[in-house]
Each structure stands twice: as C-alpha cells, then as structure tokens.
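User: structure tokens for this one?
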Amino acid sequence: MPQTPTGYLHGYSDEERERLHHQARFLAPFVHDRLPYRKRTRLLEVGAGVGAQTELLLRFWPDLHVTGVEINDAQLEEARRHLGAVPWAQGRYTLTKADATQLPYGPATFDSAFLCWVLEHVGDASRVLEEVRRVLVPGSPVVCSEVFNATFFLDPYSPDTLRYWTAFNEHQLAVGGDPFVGAKLGNLLQATGFREVQTKVKSYHLDNRDPLERAEFLAYWSDLLLSGAPAMLKAGNVDESVVEGMRKELERVASDPNSVFFYAFIQARARA
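Assistant:
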C-alpha cells in the first residue's frame, strides 16, 4: 500500500499518544461546536489517529457509525485499545489501515466526513480531498479543521520560542506537511469539487481577563511545542540551547500576570 508522505513531526511515543487524547478533549468546544451531522449515520473520519476524535464524535452524535482510516500501525493499535474501553463506542466504529489518497471504498459509501489536524501532515491535500468527495453521497457534509501557524503570538517577547516555532514550521514543510494549510482550505475544497464551501476563523486570544484559561492554554501549547523537539533536535533544526531557552520563556510567560497568547485555526465546512 503506498504511504502518503507525512509531516507528522510529533512522533509516535506513548507520551504523544496521551497528548493527542488530551488535545482532543481540550479543544472539543472549539472543534465540535455545532457540527452538521444531525441525521447522519455513516461518517468517514480521515486520520483517526489514536481514536480521540472518534470517541467525541460517537459521544456527541449517538446515531453515527464512524469508519476511521489511519496509516500508522501504532496509532491504530492505540485507537482500538482506547475505543474498546469506551462504553458508548461499542459496535459503532470501524478502524481500517488505509492510505487517505487511495481510500478502499466505493462511491457514495458515506453520508458525512470529518478531518481534524490531518491535512497539515500529508503530502497531497488535494488528492485526499478528492478521495473524500468520491466516497461521499452527493450533498453530504464535510468538516475540516486545520492549523494556520502564521497566527501565533506570545507576549512577553520570547525570542527562543519564536526561533523554535519558525524551525518547527520549516521542519514540517521539509518532511512533507503544511503548517499553513488552514488558510488554503477554501481553495482546496472548491478546487476538488465541493460545494457551499464556508470557512471560519476560530481564535484563542487570552490575557489577564481570564488568567486560568490562559494558564491552561499555555500548558497545552508548551506540550505541543515540546512534542516536536526530539525530531527537530535529531534533524539538526534546533539545538539544546534553543529548546531550553524556550522552556524558560514559556515558564516566564505563564507566570507573568500580563502575558498574552493568540492563535487561530480554520474550520471549513462544505458539501460533496
């Protein structure tokens, strides 16, 4: 089976699998807000990973059966372990090893689709979306949530964090991903034949008006950044001094009563 080029720079460690579960729960109010899956029963989830988003889809939409496709064996093993322990998931999901650019399904197999933090990691986002449209019943809704890493802002000024962030994005580009794909979703969906394409910018602008939420996001963001450190150190994209400098800066920002954090991602919705 051909392997889709991947820009998944976070690795497949036990720590990363746990981070993905935490990420799904933490961002659920933003990602899963008013999704268009009412009366849908056959949903395709591209890039099911460890089953973290699958669990939420099944919780929020009790009529759904979710078919999740994933290319990595370790992720699939964790998804099966995780979902096997979720009471409301029993009998309501199928997990398949598959290349998202060559889905093993016929036309009109599914009546909805969900992609979350997936296209940033693939080498050919257009081909993935073409395959998704091919296997959907005409008129079916698709939702894509994707990163737009050009929007990251942190105050107080944190030069090592910014150096690391630049290297983080350049490394993802170098291994075949796209850390800016969120801004391109409108063009990608329209070019691959989807209709009624809509995009929404979903942002986090956190300051001392809500210090608790700011602290929670800074802790989450620290884990996200550091998850890429082993691969980036191995590739020589950063050195230990930058990683350690970033750690110290993030600790300082977290303790500063006037710190500011801003980031935005893009969620696109369309119909096949």
